[in-house]
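Comment thread on ticket #2218

A.B. wrote:
> Attaching the input chain for the structure job we discussed in standup.
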Amino acid sequence: MEAFANRIERTRAECSRKIIREFLGCCKKPYLAWSGGKDSTLMLWLTLEEKPDIEVIYFDADSCLPDGWEYMQGLVQEWNLNFRIVETRPLLDVITEYGLDYPGIDYQTMKATVFEPVRKLMSEGYDGSLIGLRAEENRNRRIAGAKYGELFHSKGHKSWECWPLLWWKKEEVWLYIDYKQIPYHPAYDKDRFAPREELRVSYLAGETYRTYGRYVWLKYYYPELFKNLADKIPEICQYV
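C.D. wrote:
> Ran it. Output below, let me know if you need it in another format.
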C-alpha cells in the first residue's frame, strides 16, 4: 500500500495542492463546501495544509444522517475548523412538494439546497468555492470537467470554482485516506449491501440511487429514521 500511496502523493495529491494554491491566489474571500463525504473531507484535509483558516461551509438541509452529524462536529473540534452552517430549505419539504417521482426532482432539490444558498453567499462577498466534485461520479461531471478543468471562473455565479479532486479515482481516494489515517464518515462502514468504495454518503433522501438500494440501505441501518421518512414520503416504500 505504501508504494501506491507514495505514487498518489507524487501525482494526484501534489497536483491538487497546486490547484488549491492557484485558486486561493485568485480569491479574496473563498470558502470550502463540506458535506462530510469522503471526497469533500479529503479536499478539506488537503486545503487545510495550504490555508488552515479557510472558511468551511456546510449547507444544512435538515437531512443529515445522525452519526454523520456527530462525526462532522467532532472534526470541527479536532481540526479547529473555521466552520459555518448555512441553513437551506429542508430537503424533505422539497420532496414532499414535488414528489419523489417528479421528473425534475433532482434539479429542484439541488436548486433549494445548493444553487440558491450559493447565490446568497456570493451576495455576501464570497468570490470562490472549493467543491469536492469528481469526474468519475457521473457523465455530466465528466463533461463539465473536460469543458472547464479543475479551476475556472463561473459566469453564472461570477466567482471562481475549484474542483481539486476532479480526476481522482475512488480507489485512489480511499487508499490515500487510509494511508494518511484521515477520519471518515461512519456510514461508509455500513457495507452489508455494497463495499464502501461503492457507497455515497449524502442526504437521507433523494432521487439519486433510489432504484439501486439507497432506501434498502437506509431501512436496514437506520430503521427509525426510515419509518419517520416513510410517514412523510410514502412512495419511498416502493424502493425497499
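A.B. wrote:
> Thanks. Noting for the ticket: The longest helix spans residues 2-26.
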